[in-house]
Design a protein that fits this description.
225 residues, mainly alpha, Tetracycline Repressor, domain 2
Length: 225
């Protein structure tokens, strides 16, 4: 009989270790692997040891979400260029989703109220303040930016996570074969391009449009507004 791995000493497991193990498990095996039983095996601990730190899977996902924020902000340094900072923060979130798709699919849209989420919120608001936005306008633009960045990154992560789970990633492929293509002339004219949608190109274009709109809005605002 194979020798079983020795159990950890009671009380030696930390929340940070659990989150790190959960991230590793998701990276290797996908969303379906994230159970307390599997985490116990991964950590050589009883599942009850995980419950001492996280009362439920939902609580664990919140911990994962804040850790993803931490990874995104690793070595981030703000500059005096608000637009460059918002671009940097957006691509950091995108790269985190690409590097950890199963975790991002699960957790990137979760509000954590954690310290790393607060760091991200403050970084975005700082950039918007530098752009000239204040008060309610800053908050609304922050929400628009966050919805675009995290929503797009999480959506892309969901597609990538299908590959981790062993499914074909064909969600971006749009192929239409109507009986009468002449009824859909505009889609027919670009059918080759529809098959080759590049999510990163689309994300970059969305970001450019949003930042250009912010620039134009600030420029058009009355002085002292």
């Amino acid at each position: 009989m194979a020798e079983s791995r020795s159990r950890r000493k009671r009380g030696s497991l930390s929340a940070e270790e659990i989150v790190a193990a959960a991230l590793s498990l998701l990276d290797r095996e996908g969303e379906s692997a994230l159970t307390f039983a599997r985490l116990g095996q991964e950590l050589s601990a009883s599942p009850t040891a995980v419950y001492r730190h996280f009362a439920s899977r939902a609580d664990l996902v919140v911990g994962l979400a804040d850790h993803l924020d931490e990874l995104s902000l690793d070595d981030y340094e703000p500059s005096d260029d608000w637009r460059a900072d918002l671009v940097d923060l957006a691509w950091r979130a995108w790269r985190t989703a690409v590097n950890h798709p199963a975790a991002a699919a699960e957790a990137m849209g979760v509000i954590t109220n954690g310290i790393h989420e607060l760091r991200a919120v403050d970084a975005v608001l700082r950039a918007l303040h530098q752009a000239g936005l204040r008060g309610r306008e800053a908050v609304v633009h922050y929400q628009v930016y966050t919805n675009l960045v995290l929503g797009s990154a999480q959506s892309h992560a969901m597609h990538l996570a299908r590959v981790v789970d062993g499914a074909a990633d064909d969600a971006w492929v749009q192929i239409y074969t109507p009986r009468d293509p002449s009824q859909y002339p505009y889609a027919e004219a670009v059918k080759a391009e529809l098959r080759l949608v590049d999510p990163e190109e689309v994300f970059g274009r969305q970001l450019d449009i949003l930042l250009s709109a912010i620039t134009a809005g600030v420029a058009a605002a009355p002085a002292g507004a």
